[in-house]
Design brief:
mainly alpha, two-stranded antiparallel sheet
């Protein structure tokens, strides 16, 4: 009889909170998981945390997304934002959503040209449309996803937070 290796803690925790066995955990389930681990997140922090962790923008956290977050050293420090950081992230989120006309969680090249014109007008960039798009579109799919936008704002120092790697 062979002993079965124990699954990693990340998998045990994920399965515990994936109560319906769907392979995803909801915002509420993630909140309970964080609270059980000693980190209570208020509704705003929880919503923003899920936005940051939820790489595909599904509104739920899949195991691979959870694992990426779980492996970061300061996993909870990155979720517990100060009031000022939460406000800045909400403003950035609202701004992005304004240009994301179809609500897809990403901005296509047509939507991006309007966003870029606004960034130039507000002195947030001096780069050309093409070079700005290249800077923002980290996965090179021709669109700017919400997380790419947030990462970019952090890189250029416009958003005073660190997001997940």
């Amino acid at each position: 009889r062979k002993m079965q290796a124990r699954p990693p803690l990340s998998q045990i925790l994920f399965k515990k909170y994936d109560t319906d066995g769907s392979g995803t955990i909801t915002v509420a389930e993630f909140g309970k998981l964080c609270y059980e681990l000693g980190h209570f997140l208020n509704p705003e922090q929880l919503a923003l945390a899920v936005k940051v962790i939820d790489a595909d923008g599904s509104g739920k956290i899949e195991y691979n997304e959870f694992l990426k977050w779980w492996r970061t050293d300061d996993k909870f420090g990155k979720l517990e934002l100060s009031e000022e950081q939460t406000k800045a992230l909400k403003q950035a989120s609202d701004y992005f959503r304004y240009f994301d006309k179809d609500g897809s969680g990403s901005i296509d090249s047509q939507e991006f040209s309007k966003l870029h014109a606004d960034l130039v007008k507000n002195h947030l960039t001096t780069k050309t449309l093409q070079s700005c798009l290249e800077d923002l579109d980290a996965n090179r799919d021709g669109k700017v996803e919400f997380n790419e936008y947030i990462d970019w704002l952090c890189r250029i120092g416009s958003l005073p937070i660190k997001v997940l790697p």
